Amino acid sequence: MTGTIVNTIAVIAGAFIGMFLKRGLPERLADTLMKGLGLCTLYLGITGLMKGENSLILILSMVAGTLIGEGLNLEGRINNLGEWLESKFSDPESGKASSIAEGFVTASLLFCVGAMAIVGSLQSGLTGNHEMIYNKSILDFVAAIIFASTLGIGVAFSAAFVFIYQGSITLLAQWIAPFLTDAAVKEMTCVGSVIILGLALNMLGITKLRIMNYVPAIFIPIILCNFM
User: Stretch 23-27: mean pLDDT, rounded?
Assistant: First the structure.
């Protein structure tokens, strides 16, 4: 778990630095920066799409995952969590409960969707090699500073998701490694990238997609790639 713990600390540290910088950002600059991050997120989504090799798996995963997400109302639960956290960690500068939920969802997806999170955690659990997770921690540290400077404390809470997600893969590595084939990781990255595209559109103010309700789709390729 060493790699995951370092990654979690990196996200928290970066988020708090970003929150400190946020206090000196004019609203106009923060909005412009947010749109710029949206464009960068759009780029990440587009490049990740190229990892996929089977469009049928993508479609089936999105359909099945969305049904699960809507059935569980994940977006509503995250917003409720955001309201509760807002009551505990009220930010007078933002004044919006949704800001915490937005920061949490945005950062969680960016930190956990991708091959580095999956493969790095598997390497940590199977061989004790944390090099990939350490490299990811540096990237996440920088990203956390940037995103927290506009999205606030919600980015810090995403560290909990990073810890649970990557920690679970690390601890269960010897059992789940046979199912996380190269094909499954590629398709998971592809599905996750589609969701990141939706996230980018929300950040740019083009859409108002309930992004969290799509998240279960990321894990469906694990099943499909072992039966198709």
Answer: 72
